[in-house]
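Internal tracking record. Fields below are filled automatically when a chain is submitted to the structure queue. Please do not edit lines marked as system-generated. If the sequence contains nonstandard residues, flag them in the REMARKS field before resubmitting.
Queue: standard
Priority: normal
Entity type: single polypeptide chain
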Amino acid sequence: MWILIRDRAVENHPVIGIAALGSAVVQLTPRDNWIGWTPAVFVKALQDHPTRRWAKWLSRSLQRLTRGIYLKDFLEERLLSRSDIHSPTHAVVQRLLKKADQARILHGKYPKARQHKKEEHDWEVQARTYLFRAKRARVLAELLNVKQTLREAGFSSANGKCLANVLNTSAGRHAIEVILKHVKATHVGIDMLDITVCGAIPPYNALLGGKLVAMLLSSPEVALAYERKYSGASSIIASSMAGRAIIRKPKLVLLGTTSLYGVSSSQYNRITIPAKEVGGKADGQIAYELLGRSLGYGSYHLSASTVAEIELLLAQSKNGRRVNSIFGEGVNPRLRKIRDGLTEAGFPSDVLLLHGNPRLIYCVRLASNFRELLVGQTTRPHYLFPRSKPTQVTRMIVDYWIRRWFSKRMLREDVLNDVEIHSINHPLKHAARVALPPIEDEYPLFTVPG
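SYSTEM-GENERATED OUTPUT FOLLOWS
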């Protein structure tokens, strides 16, 4: 989602700042520890409090995840039976894993990219593609293995005692970690977003317009716009796994972002909005909370020509390319292509992808019970800011920014001098101006008629 913040007080309403929200990074250890998504952290919390509520969460999550898998073709091929779903065996799990490996190899050789990239999908046909046969078989094998493990560990009823029995065995703890992994996958792509762009345009940057942009992203107006945009959309992966349209109404409860560099971000530093300033509860506030640093792992330091050579190498491999930039294959296709290519060439990918430029990790909680929602314990978020009048809340956020930041900044002579430099009179000296290429360039933006 692309967002513009404009100045209504000035003629033509010039742009103050720009922002964009995108899908959240799936794996980020400091953030996942903070939320409670890391397996060790999550299991420790259950061991400390093996309650009936968590036992019901385990049972309910397993049932919901299993029901979300299309089974018709597996039943037709007698890969398994209905009774195997209720009372799984080791043999059934192994057959499913073997089928998953076979389908994944076939997808690598015959990816059928056009089928996956259609605008309109027949979800049953989509479920039967090699890619989703592989995903369905593997996920079902994992879930049936969990069901078998829980039964063997004495999880006969959804109560605290049975949950404690499960947590006393390593197999039982691993089974809970598998459920957590799939629950996290359900929520990370819909109930939280990452701030991918956030900043002010000259001369507003000198007036701390970047903080205004960051603060406005917490407005219910933004969250409601996101919900309106996607509330009726079918989830491509979930629908392809289920063989029917699956619509998940988004409930945006958390924003995440990282700094450009590994040092304290002046833009996000000290940003807080007391909820009472916008009509919320007196004890709540929204803030950019610093959670730690990333590991400095990625691919931005590799050139485009290097990546092109890696793609050529993978295209010539005997099993075909595992990554075809098809939605559903996995997150971050560029990074996975590079990893596969480096491994194919005999290089240590983990070493070469560690660029050593860590970034600071921030999160913004929009609901007081965001953790409960992101682990699937509740479906009703308790938002910190009132949502009945979102435009009014936006204005109150702006008013608070004026009092907290702008009113002090505008009194500084050096800042006013910085603002005055940016002029739209000739000769142009405005730093927000985008210079167009000359018309004689090989690829002009505009063509003059002859």
